[in-house]
Write a structure and sequence with these properties.
It catalyses: 1-(5-phospho-beta-D-ribosyl)-5'-AMP + H2O = 1-(5-phospho-beta-D-ribosyl)-5-[(5-phospho-beta-D-ribosylamino)methylideneamino]imidazole-4-carboxamide. With 142 residues, the chain is of the alpha+beta class. The protein contains 3 helices and 8 strands, in the order αββαββββββα. α1 crosses α2.
Length: 142
């Protein structure tokens, strides 16, 4: 299954123009598995990241810690392929329906949302599927 791409720059610009970015030029993006509905992760994107995502079909975010574009999977091999990009009713949150290669979380879990209140405390409810050191060559990163 191939990724969804939008070749027309004017159409990509319409999506970006409808997006309400915060004071830092960022918008939250929630990545959801297109087939199961599982929420995989949340990250930030700027206009350039959204444009590249739509143009290439590979999901791109903006890394606040590196102050640079973050092409999901470029270091881990755990790519996200765009199926659909949706804007919420207020224009201030993006939903990326994706086909996830491997795991989405830098901890080696399928989803970043793996902690929940259980037995009076916060517990991991999903185990890592991949050792993060295998993904990144060290213990932590994205």
């Amino acid at each position: 299954m191939s990724s969804t791409t939008i070749a027309d720059p004017a159409l990509r610009a319409r999506f970006i123009a409808a997006t309400r970015f915060d004071a830092n030029g960022l918008v939250p993006v929630i990545a959801q598995a297109h087939d199961t509905g599982e929420v995989l992760m949340m990250a930030w994107a700027n206009a350039e990241a959204l444009d590249e995502t739509l143009a290439t079909g590979r999901v791109v975010y903006f890394s606040r810690s590196r102050n640079a574009l973050w092409r999901k999977g470029e270091t881990s091999g755990q790519f996200q392929h765009l199926v659909d990009l949706r804007l919420d009713c207020d224009g201030d949150t993006v939903l990326a329906l994706v086909r996830q290669d491997g795991v989405a979380c830098h901890t080696g879990r399928r989803s970043c949302f793996f902690r929940a209140l259980r037995d009076g405390g916060l517990a991991a409810i999903a185990a890592p599927e991949v050792d993060p050191a295998q993904l990144y060559g060290h213990a932590h990163g994205h």
